[in-house]
Amino acid sequence: MASGNPTRTTCPYCGVGCGVVATPQDDGSVAIKGDERHPANVGRLCSKGSALGETLGLNDRLTHPEIDGRRASWNEALDLVAARFVETIAEHGPESVALYGSGQLLTEDYYVANKLMKGFIGAANIDTNSRLCMASSVAGHIRAFGSDTVPGTYEDLEEADLVVLVGSNMTWCHPVLFQRLLAARERRGTKIVVIDPRRTVTAEAADLHLAVAPNSDVALFAGLLDHLDRMGLCDSAYVDTHTSGLDAALQAARECGFPGALNATRLPAEQLREFYTLWSRSERVVTAYSQGVNQSVTGTDKVNAIINCHMLTGRIGRPGMGPFSLTGQPNAMGGREVGGLANMLAAHLDINSASHRALVRSFWNSPRIAEKPGLKAVDLFRAVGEGQVKAIWIMGTNPADSLPDADAVQEALRRCPFVVVSDVVRTDTTRHAHVLLPAAAWAEKSGTVTNSERRISRQRSFLKPPGEARPDWRIICDVAARMGFADAFDYQSPAEIFREHAALSGLANDGRRDFDISACADLSEKAYDVLEPFQWPRRSGEALDAGTTRFFAEGGFYTPDRRGRFVPTPLAVQSVSSDFPLVLNTGRIRDQWHTMTRTAKTPRLMSHYAESFCEIHSDDAEDAGIAPATLVRIVTPQGTALVRALVTERQQKGSIFAPMHWTDQQTGKGRIGSAVLAAVDPISGQPALKSSCARIEPFEAAWYGFAVLRNKPEIIHADYWAIARAEGGWRVELAGSEPVEDWTIYATDLIRSGEGTETLSYMDQDQASFRLATFSGDTLVGALFIAPQPVAVSRTWAVEHLKADAITGAERLRLLSGRPGLDQPDPGPIVCACFSVGANQIAAAVEHGSTSVEAVGAALRAGTNCGSCRVEIRRLIDAAALKKAV
Ligand code: SF4
């Protein structure tokens, strides 16, 4: 841990699971680069991974336990948690308590949490935010394979002739993997098809984009199954030897057929035909999918409709072919391995099987074992609200924002008699904690994570936890000991937990279960320390570096008859109504992660989108009377959110999109979770976060504002506000529905300038536009721009004044005018976050002859690091060419 020692660890963001090398510097900063020895990324990192070093500041860290908002000792806090859980269980039974975890937890954290809940408390009320991410994939896998198995590997995306991305904006959500895919396309001409109602940046990079109607994927793949069968592409040898249930699945598919698929997807017939032909003719085809498939009331059926096509053609488990679930989180897979979901046991054992329960109970030597599945995330918080769950412990996640019907979740937490939260920073959830426990953060934790291709990697600590913060596994074991289970939780290190987890995976396995890492059951501390990334399974005696593993090329499914199961997938219809005629889709954006507890710390990542927004097709915007860049109210039967209107043809008519990230910490009324309906897939329990029915309404603004501030305001008085970090301070978007009497007083209150400052201001004749800038010596303390329309000031240019150390005479006047001088070109909105390159800079480079993405990269470096912005650069080049042509 000494300064200057590089540590090989793993990125804490998406399911790609990139290797990271972190090197603490003498000045206290940490240099981050991609690990060239890690097979997932071979040295590459995306914008989020590259900025990890900027997220390690301790300003807002929780550093000591709190009880009811006052500082407490660890002993006091842990005693209270254990006592309240024991009392609640004694009085109301084991199902009256719950744990709610996160795909951010390490496998070792997850393992002990699951062991405590299922084996020692004796109920299965442990669920996780991974329920929101990939529960439908788990359910679909189990229905088809008898186990939660991802059959393929990342290499398959590079070895395929056709890669179909379903409901996956891979360019932004799995950026490094997408760059691997693009590199493979360069080498071998891979065809890429994107199936997505939105024309995302991924769709723009594809060879074919199918802009299907929302939730029509089941029909699309049922139609494909029928087509493949009619074309004689059924691999009879594979189907007859290794599968069951084809007739029923085919019958359902025939009822849909080409006409049904056409009707449901609303695609042009020739486009649908083109896709079916492409799929039919490509032996090496990978169908990769993520939240657009999983987060749906028919998510599990979507997964099975895809798997059916691969099993019919035998295109599974061989190089370059197979269905592929891309997990959203860094350790969603690890959570699944230890059984960290309410409907799983541990080590891929079945909670519904008495013999499996007995096996785990005897291995744990536990006094009891959960007899049935527990409550899944949405139902769990409903049960908290209804008083059935009386004590809940939330670990490393923010359900008050991220769950659907988020206001009801907040209300449930407010009413819950006992709420424990262990986390790294304060969030909208920690507000409700009776006991707040400071957890160690990414840079301070040791353990393992598993990425989307079943590759287990070490996460290694390289910084000491600040204050009294502790690793999650330690906190859980300390509580377990106080609840009377000291012997079973007497672990001295994460390695010891990992060994136990590995041993359990091999228990009575003999190839009967997919998950087996018993080769690690005797790993020494030293060997755990230097463990290289490896893919499971690794059965006892197998070498960890044995290379790539795939499943099911030769059958060997984990169903009772070892046959893969075809699943009939009935068609579903997306419902809207005249009151709520639109479909609200929510999702991730390029530079943000979940509820922004880390990514909002870095100005670089806040510069791509500094506030939340709603993408609306121009026809829908016109119908609702919403002009570009004004504010729009998204209204659903559940609630409302107020965000910026982004009118774009990339959005399909009848659908709108809003990012999932913004919370009450960064915006007033812009939290989209308030508006999302709490509908779930009935099989997986995964919320349908992408298909709430909604309408849009214009926000009648009397004024709009934009401010750059050195100091963060304590309170912002505005009907709408969104605040983001900027280099040297903060940037704030504002709007109000009522006129403000005195803008100078408003500005002074917002800027908090203090004594000895100098202020310049300007008010136009009709009193509608106002500008004010305050300086302390030669530097800017804050500037406020007010207009009756959305403020037309270059944000990037204005923000740059916060870090300027000498703003004099003419520059002050220019700042007040809101227009840069010719000697200060406006960079425009940031496109490349890695090198902070703006749209205007790219446009200027194009104007000067850089007419390819590579040439722009050579001129400005934009797009040369993670590559996530290359599609946006291409878009700017094309727009410039079009402008020239007309
Ligand atoms: Fe992290 Fe980006 Fe790699 Fe995902 S693609 S693991 S966010 S560096």
Sheet/helix structural class: alpha/beta
- Shape assignment: globular
Number of strands: 35
Count every helix, treating DSSP H or I runs of 4 or more residues as helices: 30
Pick out the low-confidence regions. none
Terminal-residue CA separation: 60 Å
Topology:
Blueprint: E1 7-10, E2 19-24, E3 30-34, H1 47-50, E4 66-67, E5 70-71, H2 74-92, E6 97-101, H3 107-121, E7 126-128, H4 131-145, H5 154-159, E8 162-166, H6 170-173, H7 175-188, E9 191-195, H8 201-205, E10 208-210, H9 217-230, H10 236-242, E11 243-244, H11 246-265, H12 269-281, E12 285-289, H13 291-294, H14 299-312, E13 322-325, H15 332-338, H16 354-364, H17 377-385, E14 391-395, H18 399-402, H19 406-415, E15 418-423, E16 435-438, E17 447-450, E18 455-459, H20 472-485, H21 494-506, H22 525-529, E19 534-535, E20 564-565, E21 582-587, H23 603-606, E22 613-616, H24 618-624, E23 631-635, E24 640-647, E25 655-659, E26 667-668, E27 692-698, E28 703-709, E29 720-726, E30 729-736, H25 743-751, E31 758-763, E32 770-776, E33 779-787, H26 795-800, H27 809-817, E34 830-832, E35 837-838, H28 839-847, H29 853-860, H30 870-885
Parallel strand pairs: 6-7, 6-14, 8-9, 8-12, 9-10, 11-20, 12-13, 14-15, 15-16, 21-25, 22-24
Antiparallel strand pairs: 1-2, 2-3, 4-5, 4-16, 17-18, 18-19, 21-27, 22-25, 23-24, 23-27, 26-29, 28-30, 28-33, 29-30, 31-32, 32-33, 34-35
Task: Explain this structure.
With 886 residues, this protein is of the alpha/beta class. The chain has a seven-stranded mixed beta sheet, sandwiched between helices. It has a seven-stranded antiparallel beta sheet with strand order 26-29-30-28-33-32-31, with helices on both faces. A six-stranded mixed beta barrel has the order 21-25-22-24-23-27. Helix 3 (107-121) runs parallel beside helix 15, helix 4 (131-145) packs across helix 14 and helix 28 packs across helix 30. It is globular and about 80 Å long. The mean pLDDT is 94.
